[in-house]
């Protein structure tokens, strides 16, 4: 491992937003090539991967940081717009994990008025439920 540390010393080697986007473009091109069976997409996928490797092993750290800064000026509003519209996969994944972990002790259901997800304890019989968002009152057997 010491040889790798010595080799990467002084190189950029950071997984910044531009590098991650390049890997994403590469994967998308590979998937398109896989489903369409067009070899051109496989060949085009080498371009972003080559750029990723070039940026990773580059010794010009300042220039790579400037590339990432310019990329974020260009793509930042796009990513913020996606996030505002509910594109938060990490948060959804945590929610699914929490639901799976609580599946024996809690019941998850949607409010009939506003479709807000509510969490109720299991085994309490028939409960009078009041939605905290829209104040709709309904009964549910748990």
Question: What features would you describe in this structure?
Answer:
Helices cover 58% and strands 14% of the residues. It has helices spanning 2-8, 17-36, 39-44, 46-57, 61-84, 89-101; strands at residues 106-110, 117-121, 126-130, 137-141. By secondary structure, it is an alpha+beta fold. Helix 2 packs antiparallel against helix 4. The protein has two domains: 2-87, no CATH class; 99-141, no CATH class. The protein starts with a helix and ends with a strand. The radius of gyration is 24 Å and the shape is elongated. It is built from six helices and four strands. The longest helix has 24 residues, at 61-84. The strands form two sheets. Strands 1-2 form a two-stranded antiparallel sheet.
């Amino acid at each position: 491992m010491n040889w790798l540390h010595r080799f990467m010393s002084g190189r950029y080697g950071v997984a910044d937003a531009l590098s991650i986007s390049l890997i994403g473009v590469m994967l998308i091109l590979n998937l398109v090539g896989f489903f369409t069976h067009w070899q051109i997409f496989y060949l085009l996928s080498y371009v972003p991967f080559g750029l990723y490797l070039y940026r990773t092993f580059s010794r010009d750290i300042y220039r790579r940081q400037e590339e990432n800064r310019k990329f974020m000026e260009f793509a930042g509003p796009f990513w913020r717009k996606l996030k505002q519209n509910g594109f938060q996969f990490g948060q959804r994944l945590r929610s699914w994990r929490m639901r799976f972990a609580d599946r024996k002790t809690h019941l998850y259901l949607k409010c009939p008025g506003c479709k807000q997800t509510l969490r109720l304890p299991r085994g309490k019989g028939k409960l009078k439920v009041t939605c905290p968002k829209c104040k709709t009152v309904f009964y549910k057997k748990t």
